[in-house]
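Allow me, if you will, to draw on your knowledge of protein folds for a short while. I have a record of one protein: its chain in single-letter code and its fold written as discrete structure tokens. Kindly check, if you would, that the fold set down in the tokens agrees with what the sequence suggests. Thank you for your consideration; the sequence and its tokens are set out here:
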Amino acid sequence: MAGARPLAPWRWIGVPLVQCLILTVLFSLPFRPFGLSLPEPIFPLAPTFAWAVIRPSMLAPVGVLLMGLFLDIFWGAPMGLWALSLLLAYGGGLVGRSMMAGQSFPAMWAWYAAVTALAMGAAYLFTMVGAHATADPVAVGWQFLATFILFPFAHLLIDRFEDADVRFR
């Protein structure tokens, strides 16, 4: 394959991880165009989904855990909330990995929506149990929508590295 690149961990795990953390910080800046705040998508869900689809790895769950802990610290969430939610999403992606193989772009987007719903539903339930109160469902819905729109970035990561490992061709 001419477009295949070597599957170096820094390239398919390290770079997307750092990009997600930078984007999280940038989207949290108090920039309010037209008086509206920027959405707060869960950027780490895109590489979490992609890493589960690309291939199982020992480094990917560590990267997912690090991104989740960063989100917990950065947003002031209870420690482990987003780490556990993202790890559940990664596990959901691994479970459905064989069914996703060879699927079309819309079908993969549907799988991404399911994994995103799993992560956000888990975070919603963990927050509800921990705080003994419910989060605003409208805000959660907007956050889901903002995260759902990120699928093309996950698809780009999958397309870029899916065929890079010759052991899985």
In short: The chain has one domain: 9-26+40-168. Helices lie at 9-27, 45-54, 59-75, 81-95, 97-100, 105-131, 137-148, 151-161. The mean pLDDT is 87. Residues 7 and 165 are 6 Å apart (CA to CA).
